[in-house]
Design brief:
The protein has 209 residues and is mainly β. Helices cover 9% and strands 49% of the residues. Strands 1, 2, 3, 4, 5, 6, 7, 8, 9, 10 and 11 form an eleven-stranded mixed β-sheet that branches.
Length: 209
């Protein structure tokens, strides 16, 4: 099922006050989000940390993505940025990628009794693509790294990447973009993903809180 066919899902999420669960669920929704813009300001004088300003709505519905496999095609790591959200300023990892492949997507959005869960049909791969690049902000990415674009894998392939724990292989000055592949992944998101999603057999349910 392509993003265009997910409009009923988006309506259901909106009715549950979680319209930002999939800001990328339809081309129209993506354009609306990007119209607000995730804009990167100039680095404030006297500081060395860039500040990104995403729309405030996504902070009201934080989400956690779990996947058997996550592939970041032609990814570039842009360092740690400060993201301004409705909940206040948060530090986040910033990535841009050409596209994302998500194996066995399992997405939980919201907190407590208002949380909802979106799952793809088992053994399928969901994709996220953008016009140019897809931008991803996350506070935490954990899993098993199995591909670093041809570079040697770390001795300990079980990784947890946060703004305070950046592995040396994350950025490669000689290779600005490369494909990163992870298995058994959990990604904690605080801002938004720009792009359009294609997902097969989506199933939406409430969580137990």
């Amino acid at each position: 099922m392509t993003g265009r066919l997910l409009r009923p899902l988006v309506c259901a999420l909106a009715a549950a006050a979680l319209s930002v669960v999939l800001p990328l669920a339809t081309p129209a929704a993506s354009k609306a989000l990007l119209a607000d813009g995730i804009r990167t300001s100039k680095t404030p004088a006297g500081t060395g940390t860039p500040t990104d300003h995403p729309p405030t709505r996504p902070a009201n519905a934080p989400w956690v993505l779990r996947a058997d496999r996550l592939v970041l095609h032609d990814s570039a790591f842009h360092g740690v940025v400060t993201v301004r959200t409705a909940a206040g300023s948060e530090r986040a990892l910033k990535f841009t990628v050409r596209s994302l492949d998500i194996g066995d997507l399992d997405l939980t959005v919201g907190r407590g009794s208002s949380a909802m869960r979106l799952r793809a049909k088992p053994t399928t791969t969901s994709t996220v693509t953008g016009k140019d690049v897809v931008t991803l902000y996350t506070q935490k990415l954990s899993g098993t790294v199995i591909g670093l674009g041809g570079a040697p894998l770390p001795t300990d392939r079980s990784v947890t990447v946060t703004p305070d724990a950046l592995p040396p292989w994350l950025a490669h000055p000689a290779v600005p973009t490369r494909t990163l592949t992870f298995e058994n992944v959990t990604v904690s998101q605080i801002a938004s993903v720009s792009g359009n999603m294609s997902i097969t057999g989506p199933a939406l349910s409430t969580t137990d809180g």
